[in-house]
Amino acid sequence: MRKTTKTPVLRRLAAAAVALGSCLALAGPVGSAGAAPADPVPTVFFGDSYTANFGIAPWNQEGDRTFCFQAKENYPAVAARSLADKGITLDVQSDVSCGGALVRHFWQEQELLPGSGLKVPPQQDALKADTQLVVGSMGGNTLGFTRILKQCSDTLRGPEHALLPGEPVDGDQPAAKCGEFFTSGAGKQWLDDQFELVGWDLEELLERIRYFAPDAKPVLVGYPRLVPADTSKCLTSAPGQTELPLADIPQDALSFLDQIQKRLDDTMRKAVADAGADFVDLYAHTGSNTACDGVNRGIGGLLENSQIEIGEGQYLPWYAHPNDKGRDIQAERVADKVEQILNR
C-alpha cells in the first residue's frame, strides 16, 4: 500500500502551481541563453546527515538544531562559496539539512533524539514563493540503510551505537548471514517494501517543492559510493586506524551493500526523471574514494573517530559519512550541476 500524505487536492494544486509558473516564464522577458543569472539566486538546502555532513566540526549548535549535527562547512556552504568565485551568487534562504531525517520529514516535524522532546519543523517550511533553487539529499534513512548495516554487524548492534538510528531488521538472524537474509524470504520482502516507500516519498517531496516554490528548480543529490569494486580493500585498516573500514561486516555482504546503493541511486534517478528535476550523481564519481580506499577515502570508516568531540578525547565515529575530502567532492559535483542548470 502506498504510504503517502498526498491528497487529490494537493496534486491538483501542485499541477496548477507548476502550470502557473510555466505561464509566467513564457510571458516574461527572454534572457540570453547560456548566461548565469546576474542577481543572487534564492536557494534552499534540505536533506539528511549527508547534506548536513555529520562528523565534520565545527557544527551549528544553535537552539533546537544542535543535534542535527549540521557542519558549518557542509557541502552546501562549500558549494555556494565555489559558485561565488565563478560569479554565481546563491542567496541561501535556509539550510535545514538535519542528521537522521527521513524523506517524510520534508513535510513532517522531526524528533531529533528519541524521547528528548527536541523537534525541528518540516523542512518544506523553509521554501518561499520566490525560491528558485532547492538542493539536497534524502532517501537513505527512509530506506533504512543504518538498519541494514546493523543487520550485517554484531558490533553496531551494541548499545554504545544507539546514536546510529534504528535496530537490525531481524535481531534473531545472525549478522554473518545478512546477505542471505536480504536476498530471500522476509528480508527480501522488507527491502523491496522499503525501496517502494522511498520511491513514493521522493515523488511526494518533489511535488511539494513544485507546490510551495513553483519557480524553483529541484536538485536531488545522490550518495557517494561506500564499497569499492574490489572488496578485498576493505580487509585492510586505513593508515593510522586499527579498525577495518567497515568493521565486522562480512566480506561476502559488502558487494550486496554496494548493490543496495546502486538500487537506491536508480530509485532516486527515476523519481527525478518523473518529476522533471535534476540529479547529482555522486556514486559514479567516488569509486576511488570509498571507505576502503585508505588515504584517498572520502568516507570515514564506520568506527573511525570523526571530528565530533563529546568528551575529553572522546569522539563520535564517522558511521560511514563523508570526511573533508568526501565533502569537497560533494560540493564540487553540486556546484557543477547548479552552474549547468543556471546557465541553461
Tell me what the structure shows.
The chain is of the alpha/beta class. The protein has one domain: Rossmann fold, CATH 3.40.50.1110. Helix content is 36%, strand content 12%. Residues 1-33 have low confidence and may be disordered. Residues 45-327 form the SGNH hydrolase-type esterase domain.
Give the number of DSSP strands.
9
The overall number of domains is: 1
Oligomeric state as shown: single chain
The percent range for strand residues is: 5-15%
Q: N- to C-terminal separation?
A: 39 Å
CATH topology: Rossmann fold
Mean pLDDT: 90
So, the CATH homologous superfamily? SGNH hydrolase
Order of helices and strands: HEHHEEEEHHHHEHEEEH
CATH class, please? Alpha Beta
Summed up, what is this model?
This protein has 344 residues and is α/β, with parallel strands linked by helices. The chain has helices at 8-27, 49-52, 75-85, 140-143, 145-151, 178-182, 185-212, 251-275, 324-342; strands at 41-47, 90-95, 110-111, 119-120, 133-137, 217-221, 278-280, 305-311, 314-317. The strands form three sheets. A five-stranded parallel β-sheet has the order 2-1-5-6-7, with helices on both faces. Strands 3-4 form a two-stranded antiparallel sheet. It has a two-stranded antiparallel sheet with strand order 8-9.
